[in-house]
Design goal:
The structure holds two protein chains of two kinds. Helices cover about 75% and strands about 0% of the residues of chain A. Chain A is mostly helical. Chain A has one domain: MetI-like (MetI-like fold). Chain B is about 45% helix and about 10% strand. In chain B, helix 8 runs parallel beside helix 10. In chain B, about 45% of the residues are buried. The chains are: A mainly alpha, B alpha/beta.
Chain lengths: ~290, ~425
């Protein structure tokens, strides 16, 4: 009995920390979503029911449907390429070769940079006047005149997704490489004895073995991509014509530009609910597919 | 036994967490008085300049120590707002034209009337300085330190290359010259466009200067109470502005912020740039003085140009325990001599009458243009953005997105004007 209590006590500092720095702020944010909470004039602070949600969803100038669509394109456009390229990278780096350590460090370096700094750099690369990308494409002969990657509504989303892919590949690379290195060689040897080729080995040994890592990294990345406004904020500020505005950038606009913490929190709550539903569905699908396999 | 150790451990932890609270209570003993000063227009060179002035002040007042807090520019206004609203003890804060109303609404600023009345340099302030100080409720809640007024930066070498020897005096001339210079195959354009990040501060001045009777209190209203953009003159001017974008600006301009704008001017690809005087330093670092100049803003079809005077200054928060000392520091920072020295390095316009009279720096060279703008009220009329309106903070994003939509041909001039009118209704 004593022993049990002892361990419970040991949990207190950690729980206090979580409560203070995560749960209380989240609860506070959720409450704000139902308040008229504008720093412009705090004397007008009051509960206003669902007004913030209504205002955000029915905004005539900044279409909410467009923002939702942008968020979905931004998420999957980034996630799929990050995963596929990251997985490829991990497979390439699994086998030892001369200078692998140094090469790995270089490849993963991008993951250590700040999103805002990456955004500013890529904004210059994609600059429609003096940008390096335009310059290269013109020199190679693909383009005759520079194009506005960030000012053309049809190209802007692609142009912010590309740096996000560049940024996210190392994450999958690191995590999947670690998982790949934990696959016991005996399994591959056994598979070879059973006559498996390299594709078969990959599908029947590698993937099932590292599946828990794949499942959890994809879920983690999803949440991070949805909550990652830095790049877009630095590159296009949600423009042109709202085409790269995602939920997270609109939330920043509401809070930092308009001082409207109520509407900002409402968007935060919407993001939270959407991600929650997504996580449940995603895990359910993963569970179901496991049963099918068995 | 073990249980006691854990209880003890938790107790120690709690005490550790609370220690700053106790420490704060005991610190108020002898020694110099600490004043906390929060700047908001943070940039490395400007912060260095402030540090120099602080050192000068501290050398003269050994009993005072100034702690400068410099939040990164992008978050500085917000950070300061949060500090004020959590009632942190601050003594001097940098207040801007777009934050003063909010701070006063939330009762965060001390009324400076008694201090200003007793100040020996109070009579030396420009009428504009007094007006800016009294922006909210006709009460001086801040002492302005800098003015930002738009001027037209011109690359004289580029104009000469295309055979232009005169400078544009009207917006029509500016637009016509910009288009004449433009040759897309040569990668040469005319106008340094601003498409994002408070783009209205440039577009709306150019557009509304065609309207004859803009109200001095609100640039978006006419003197007879109409929405300024709904006038036929403004409608035409919006169309002309879109035409300028189509024929004198790289298509990328729709996504240009401050740095792209300045970069295009320095590279010479757009020889005209509308900017504030704090851009002078950046341009001067990159270009030889004979390659560029600054001229007064072009006159609109109304025969006038409406200019807004952006300003920033210092105020004393109501949480300060040493308001008298804080004022002493403010009156040192913004005395005529220090204010002029600061402005010479940092760029904006100083706030004292005597500075313009005695210091040729601010009435010669590129500053001549701003002197003209500030001393010719027939041609250059100073107006205000509706800083008082709770809708003002959201305007930048709405204007940016609807204007981009108009520029890219997704909406018509009438639709854009309608959306602006609906927004301000």
């Amino acid at each position: 009995m004593m022993e049990k209590n002892h361990y419970r006590w040991m949990l207190v500092p950690a729980l206090l920390f979580l409560l203070l720095f995560i749960y209380i702020p989240v609860a506070r944010g959720a409450v704000m979503a139902f308040q008229h909470y504008n720093l412009f004039d705090l004397s007008t602070l009051r509960f206003n029911g669902l007004d913030n949600f209504k205002a955000v969803i029915t905004d005539k100038n900044i279409s909410f449907a467009q923002i939702l669509l942008n968020t979905v394109v931004w998420l999957f456009g980034s996630l799929i390429f990050q995963f596929v390229l990251g997985f490829g990278l991990a497979l390439l780096l699994r086998k030892p070769f001369a200078g692998r350590g140094l090469y790995t460090a270089f490849v993963f370096y991008g993951w250590a940079l700040s999103g805002f700094a990456i955004g500013l750099t890529w904004a210059w690369l994609f600059n429609g006047q003096a940008g390096l990308v335009n310059d290269l494409l013109i020199r190679i002969g693909i383009l005759k005149q520079p194009i506005g990657f960030l000012s053309n509504p049809r190209l802007a989303m692609m142009s912010v997704i590309i740096p996000n892919i560049w940024y996210g590949v190392p994450f999958f690379g690191i995590m999947l490489l670690a998982a790949l290195q934990s696959v016991p060689n005996e399994l591959y040897e056994a598979a070879v004895l059973d006559g498996a080729g390299s594709v078969r080995k990959f599908v029947s040994v590698t993937v099932p073995y590292i599946k828990p890592t794949i499942v959890s990294t994809i879920l983690l990345r999803t949440m991070w991509i949805v909550n990652f406004p830095d790049l877009i904020y630095a590159m296009t500020n949600g423009g042109p014509v709202n085409r790269t505005n995602i939920l997270a950038t609109q939330m920043i606009n509401k809070v930092f530009k308009e001082y409207d913490y109520g509407q900002g929190s409402a968007i935060g709550v919407i993001i939270m609910v959407l991600l929650f539903v997504y996580a449940i569905l995603y895990l359910k699908i993963v569970e179901d597919s496991k049963e099918e396999l068995l | 036994m073990k249980n006691r150790i854990t209880v003890l451990f938790v107790l120690v932890l709690v005490l550790l967490l609370l220690s700053p609270v106790f420490a704060a209570g005991t610190k108020e003993a002898a020694g110099p008085v600490n004043l906390t000063f929060v700047e908001t227009i943070t940039s490395p060179s400007r912060t260095a300049q402030i540090m120099e002035l602080i050192a000068k002040y501290e050398a003269r007042n050994p009993n005072v120590k100034i702690n400068l807090v410099s939040p990164p520019y992008e978050q500085s206004d917000n950070k300061l707002t949060l500090m004020l609203n959590s009632n942190q003890e601050l003594d001097i804060i940098e207040v801007r034209d777009h934050t003063v109303k909010q701070f006063v609404n939330n009762k965060k600023l001390v009324d400076l009337t008694p201090y200003l009345a007793a100040w020996d340099e109070g009579d030396d302030l420009l009428p504009l300085t007094i007006a800016a100080a009294n922006t909210v409720d006709d009460t001086p809640y801040l002492l302005p330190q800098f003015f930002y007024v738009k001027g037209l930066f011109v690359r004289t070498d580029v104009l000469a290359k295309y055979g232009f020897t005169t400078m544009p005096k009207t917006t029509d001339e500016l637009y016509a010259m910009s288009k004449a210079i433009t040759g897309k195959d040569r990668n040469q354009y005319g106008f340094g466009f601003r498409g994002k990040g408070s783009s209205f501060k440039i577009s709306d001045i150019l557009i509304l200067s065609d309207v004859p009777n803009i109200s001095a209190d609100n640039i978006y209203q006419t003197e007879d109470g109409r929405f300024a953009f709904s006038t036929p003159e403004a409608r035409k001017a919006v169309a002309a502005y879109v035409d300028l974008y189509k024929h004198a600006v790289p298509s990328d301009g729709v996504n240009w912020g401050f740095s792209e704008q300045v970069n295009a001017f320095i590279s010479g690809s757009t020889p005209f740039l509308v900017q504030d005087p704090d851009t002078v330093g950046m341009v001067a670092d990159a270009l030889d003085p004979e390659l560029y100049t600054v001229i007064p803003m072009p006159i609109g079809a109304s025969g006038k140009t409406y200019l807004d005077y952006g300003f920033a200054g210092l105020g004393i928060p109501t949480t300060s325990k040493h308001p008298d000392l804080a004022w002493d520091f403010i009156s040192f920072m913004i005395n005529a001599e220090n204010n002029a020295d600061f402005c010479k390095v940092y760029g904006p316009l100083p706030v004292h009458t005597s500075t313009y009279a005695n210091d040729p720096f601010f009435s010669s060279g590129v500053y001549k243009s701003w002197e003209t703008e500030m001393s010719d009220p027939d041609n250059y009329v100073f107006v205000k953005y509706p800083l008082d309106s709770p809708k003002y903070p959201g305007w930048a994003q709405v204007q940016e997105q609807t204007m981009q939509s108009l520029l890219l041909g997704n909406t018509t001039v009438d639709q854009a004007i309608k959306s602006w009118e609906d927004y301000w209704k």
